[in-house]
Amino acid sequence: MLDEQGTITRIVNNYARISFNFGPTLLSWLEVHAPDVYAALLEADAQSRERFGGHGSALAQSYGHTILPLANDRDRRTQVIWGLRDFEHRFGRRAEGMWLPETAADTPTLEVLAEHGMHFTVLAPRQAKRVRAGEGEEWTELDGASIDPSRPYQARLPSGRSITLFFYDGPISQGVAFEGLLNFGPAFANRLLDGFDDARRGDQLVHIATDGESYGHHHRHGEMALAAALEQIDARSDVELVNYGAFLERHPAVDEVEIVEASSWSCAHGVERWRADCGCSTGAHPGWSQAWRGPLRDALDWLRDQVAPRFERAASELLRDPWWARDRYIEVVLDRRPESRERFFAGHAARPLDAAEQTRAFELLELQRHAMLMYTSCGWFFDDISGIESVQVLHYAGRVLQLAKDLFGDDLEPGFLARLDAVRSNLPAMGTGREIYERAVRPAVIDLVKVGAHYAVSSLFEEYGERSTIYCYEVDLEDSHRLQAGRARFHVGRARMESRVTQEEARLSFAALHLGDHVLAGAVRPFRDERSYEELVRTATEAFGRADFTALLRMMDRAFGGSSYSLGSLFRDEQRKVADLVLEATLEEVERTYERLYDSHAPLLRYLRQLGTPAPRALVLPAQFIINARLRRALEGEPPDVAAMRRNVDEAKEQALQFDRGALLLSAEHAVERLADGLHRRPRDLDLLEAATGAIEILRELPFEVDLGVLQNVVYGTVRPQWAEMLAAGERGDGDARRWLELVGTLRELVRVRVP
User: Fold this and answer.
1) Are residues 564 and 576 in the same domain?
2) CA-to-CA distance for 628 and 583, rounded, in angstroms?
3) Measured CA angle at 195 (ends 194, 199), to 5 deg
4) Is pLDDT of 258 > 70?
5) Beta-carbon-side half-sphere exposure of residue 750 (alpha carbons within 13 Å)
6) Claim to verify: residue 464 and residue 483 sit in the same structural domain
7) Could you give the residue ranges of the DSSP H alpha helices within 179-285?
8) pLDDT beyond 70 at 562
């Protein structure tokens, strides 16, 4: 919240005052990678319960963002059960309502929601087919989006159950997305207030539904416009902010509605966008065909229906009710600790299962989990089968195929690929769905041997402990021998790999050799016996000791049966990290060369600048490279080296050198994040405050904007509350307190946060 001068006067949690939903996938990522944001979301729901009479504003979502009207009955049911359980696990309460992905709905979907206790969901106005004032009254047929969105409606279902439906205000929602309503908070508030109509009877609810990314991503500072609009509305006496649960408690639905079957908010043709060339697209590629959508869904449906009976037969040998066990498998997905797995089998195992049988049971359930994930809606939403979203859907299918082959001995891949032949990309170079699968998916299929290869190769650059975690795999290093000679490094050992997901495990022997630059080789094999392993270690270390690398590579080839791995064998996320380490020595050498050039000719550059004579490009480029490299290193210090930042920024300005926006912006934002983290933990640290004020002062001189949001949050939430106590200490003559007040006074001006 800003004052007239643009200074932050308050930082508010918008989610505490609006209804919202986050998918389980995003929440699980936030929990690990942005725990502060995750905690703020949970706190927003807690605050909303206090504000709205016990009704939380968070809505659940079906688990995998599947278009539920296109799912079969089993998948629809499991998706709802998993979404509700994930919500309860995170927010600590039962959900009152559920957001349907893309608001895609039909009667079977509403039946599942009602069966599982959902009081309401939210739909688009065009999804209402007809309404009536109550049971026994005449139906009124609706034309498109003509329903009154200001009241709740009851949908009576064939089972005898019912569910309340809210239909959002379409024109105002469109205004947020496409008409610039988020450019100015007061205008946004006034447009919302204009949604009331004196001609309507009774209390009215004005509500909109929009994508979360509208607020700040699609529309810069849109989240601030939302905060200002909420503030303006909240200050009025004739209206009040409310969430769906609170409104419904006071105003139970009386009017009835029937919906347009198999309809959604983002496809004018129902749900065809996720199975046909209906004409709906992003608009980014005029003339492109979406004819690939149908054959892609057909291929996935075929795969799902091939594995379902196989799963049922195999799982019946281990689990009392395979499909019920699948519904409850979410408990293990949310908590993979041993005690959680034990509880699961205590409730679902057909009999006591040994370790191998438990692994088989989990592999069967993982097959089903991925068979549902392969219907993630974004696989069809965009414009081509070659997009990352559609390729991710194929990755899920690849895991289903891998598990099916391991579990049932059936190779379903040829049949699946035959169906992908009918899926054609709009880009001739990308080819068919089969070609995309063979190029992007098949090489990425992982087993424990590939995990071992990743471990072996990456261990040359990363010091793993006796126990380490690589994604969902636990690695116990049982024996290890590391050798180094100059740039050459060698690691041979044995380890036990275990999947935390399926409990599958293997003991592997490995060896990896790095001769510098990109010359790298790794090898892995199942551990055989102690004697052969000791022989491997002895001959390998002797060859390395003689620096006979050719013999060592030949020995590795013989001992490991010709299975060789390289940098490309690493998991994709790690490839760049290790490539950067491999390049480090080369880049240091290049940097030293440029540094010599720059240091030798810097006086000449300054002289040419004084004369107004353009410097030769051959001298300018090394100067720019070195100044940017030195500035980047200064930013990466703990804390940032403010003196070095000052020298290099001044030098760049004096010589009219260009700043490397790409590299510097990333380093600058990481530096701000580290400073914010430090001040959050040590808000009275004078050295840290000095570094923060000095660094931010210099960053504001750069020709690009550095995001200070995380630091603003800390200054407002952690530093500001210290002001009164430090002011009192300063008045008593405490020198450190006076210095703190001075530094915080400077910092508040730099980040534009009012303190106190």
Assistant:
1) no
2) 18
3) 95
4) yes
5) 25
6) yes
7) 185-193, 222-234, 244-250
8) no
Same domain, residue pair 334 and 364:
yes
SS3 407: helix
| d(C-alpha 628, C-alpha 664), whole Å | 7
Q: Are residues 169 and 221 in the same domain?
A: yes
**Where do the H-state alpha helices sit in 64-145?**
73-91, 107-115
For residue 215, the 8-state DSSP code is B
Backbone φ and ψ for 514, nearest 5 degrees, come out as -125, 120
Residue 282 lies in a domain: no
Q: How far is CA 683 from CA 372, 679, 719, 723, in A?
A: 47, 4, 6, 10
Of the residues 569, 597, 613, the one at which a domain ends: 569
R_g over Cα of the chain: 31
Tens digits of residue pLDDT in 423-437: 999 999 999 999 999
| Residue 691 is assigned to a structural domain of this protein | no
CA distance 55 to 52: 5
CA 264 to chain centroid, in Å, comes to 24
Q: Are residues 204 and 297 in the same domain?
A: no
Q: Exposed, middle or buried by CB within 10 Å (0-12, 13-18, 19+), for 342?
A: exposed
Show the tokens assigned to 149: 């969105």
Amino acid at 329: Y
145 has pLDDT over 80:
no
- Bond from prior residue into 352 cis (ω within 30 degrees of 0): no
Q: Which DSSP string do the residues of 180-203 spell out, in sequence order? A: -GGG-HHHHHHHHHTT--TTS-S-
- Which three-class secondary structure state does DSSP give residue 660? coil
CB atoms within 10 A of CB 607: 12
- State how far the alpha carbon of 725 is from the alpha carbons of 261, 676, 736, 740, 754, in Å: 62, 21, 12, 11, 17
* 541 in Cβ contact with 559 (< 8 Å): no
What is the domain-level CATH number for residue 75? 3.20.110.20
How many independent structural domains does the chain possess? 5
- Which residue type sits at 230? L
Comparing C-alpha atoms, which of 471, 468, 570 is closest to residue 514?
570
**Percentage of the chain surpassing pLDDT 70?**
100
Structural domain containing residue 745: 675-686+700-756
H or E element, residue 478: strand 473-485
DSSP string, 411-444: --HHHHHHHHTT-B-SSTTT-BHHHHIIIIIGGG
- For residue 505, list its beta bridge partners: 498
Point out the domain boundary residue: 394, 419, 444: 444
What value, to the nearest 5°, has the Cα angle with vertex 176 and ends 170 and 181? 125
Distance CA 697, CA 733 (A): 28
> What integer is the mean pLDDT of 540-551?
91
Burial class (CB in 10 A: 0-12, 13-18, 19+), 640: buried
Same-domain status, 589 and 503: no
Residues 546 and 626 placed together within one structural domain of the fold: no
pLDDT tens-digit map of 10-53: 999 999 999 999 999 999 999 999 999 999 999 999 999 999 99
Query: Is residue 271 assigned to a domain?
Result: no
Closest to 456 (Cα-Cα) out of 547, 380, 370, 566: 566
Assess whether 116 and 237 both reside in one domain: yes
What is the value of pTM for the model shown? 0.92
305 in a structural domain: yes
User: Lowest mean pLDDT: which of 270-279, 450-459, 488-497, 673-682?
Assistant: 450-459
Integer angstrom CA distances of residue 200 from 147, 167, 197: 12, 16, 6
| Of residues 673, 683, 681, 744, the one with CA closest to residue 706 | 673
